[in-house]
Amino acid sequence: QVQLVESGGGLVQAGGSLRLSCAASGRIASNYRMAWFRQAPGKEREFVAAIRWTQDITMYGASVKGRFTISRDSAKSTVFLQMNSLKPEDTAVYYCAGGVIPREYDAWGQGTQVTVSS
What we know:
Elements (H helix, E strand, L loop, with lengths): L2 E5 L2 E4 L4 E8 L6 E8 L6 E7 L5 E3 L7 E6 L4 E6 L8 E9 L6 E2 L3 E6 L1
Parallel strand pairs: 2-11
Antiparallel strand pairs: 1-3, 3-8, 4-5, 4-9, 5-6, 7-8, 9-10, 9-11
């Protein structure tokens, strides 16, 4: 079972940047994918970005495309989310998730709070 731990959240002004990290432990299969989701108070969980563990194939949600970048360091078993041009509407708890393609994501981190002030 893969375990995930996020870090890097915090408070930032609109227009600023943050980088989130997600450290994975356990056996990671070659057909694994990892993703970031977020959930704001009173809203449903939203897909942010995903990346395949062994290929540079990425996907982004429409609301973050062009501003956020997902990447990975396989040697360190870590996935990153670089968030630029942050907006107040990006405020949410950000969760790291993992799963074997094509199954659903079945490993989740505890979440990290990102707050963007206007």
